[in-house]
Design goal:
Blueprint: H1 2-7, E1 18-20, H2 21-31, H3 33-47, E2 51-64, E3 70-78, H4 84-99, H5 103-106, H6 110-118, E4 126-128, H7 129-150, H8 152-163, H9 178-197, H10 201-212, H11 227-236
Helix pairs in contact: 2-6, 2-9, 3-4, 3-9, 4-7, 7-8, 7-9, 7-10
């Protein structure tokens, strides 16, 4: 496990935890699969036909509409959607986001293990874990919202049972589809920025909140400290 310790956390016993941003970016690239799959699912549900037509049963009725369009008859079945795979994948994404926030859970994350292994021969770039926790917290909120969108009846039933009232409908999806579609593309863009450009918007928001005094803690990411250079200086002395 020494490679795991040395390529993800600089030192798991530090009071202020630092993680290898090289491994973080590799992991973000791997996790892009989840929002991409969700985007394809939403595209299929919202922008393709909900009907399955049996082409062998299509017949010309020899009638036309007022717009001079030929009317055909045939058998068709309305599609039913099962989001079990999407739900399981979102739960896995939530697990990965939560696992990366703490030392004792990070060891159980397959993506962290793989990313750390792939980054083992690359120069580490140490960055504080706290801003990443904030960014991953935003990811948890987005994933949770998508879970509700894919399972509106389950969520509505839980809320109605909790408050003993019919606050939410259980017969239709009460969340406008424009919201998850927008959030999915936002999530894809943010993860692409992280993986390809090394730009973490959540970290920037965290730094801004620290600067504004909303979050009362030092912004270690803003200090731009080269910890490896300091370590080499002490070793040379």
């Amino acid at each position: 496990m020494s490679w795991f310790k040395n390529t993800w956390f600089r030192d798991p016993d530090e009071n202020i935890l630092f993680i290898n941003d090289t491994a973080v970016r590799i992991r973000a690239g791997m996790m892009l699969v989840i929002p991409l799959f969700m985007a394809l699912t939403l595209f299929d549900v919202l922008y393709t036909s909900p009907w399955i037509v049996n082409e062998t049963t299509i017949e010309d009725t020899y009638e036309i509409t007022e717009a001079s369009q030929i009317i055909y008859s045939g058998e068709m079945v309305k599609r039913s959607y099962d989001f079990s795979v999407q739900t399981l994948l979102l739960f896995y994404g939530l697990f990965e986001l939560i696992a990366g926030m703490f030392v004792w859970t990070a060891r159980f994350s397959p993506s962290i293990q793989l990313a750390s292994f792939l980054a083992r021969n690359k120069p580490p770039v140490w960055k504080p874990l706290t801003p990443k926790r904030f960014a991953w917290g935003l990811g948890i909120a987005l994933a949770s919202f998508c879970l509700v969108f894919f399972n509106p009846d389950v969520f509505a039933g839980a809320i109605n049972t909790l408050f003993s009232s019919e606050l939410l409908p259980t017969t239709y999806n009460y969340i406008p589809y424009q919201i998850p579609v927008t959030l999915i593309w936002v999530c894809l863009a943010l993860m692409w920025f992280e993986a390809v450009l090394g730009f973490c918007l959540g970290c920037k928001i965290h730094s801004l909140l620290v600067w504004m005094g909303v979050i009362t803690e030092p912004c270690y990411a803003c200090n731009n400290i080269d910890w490896d250079a300091i370590k080499r200086k002490h070793e040379a002395a």
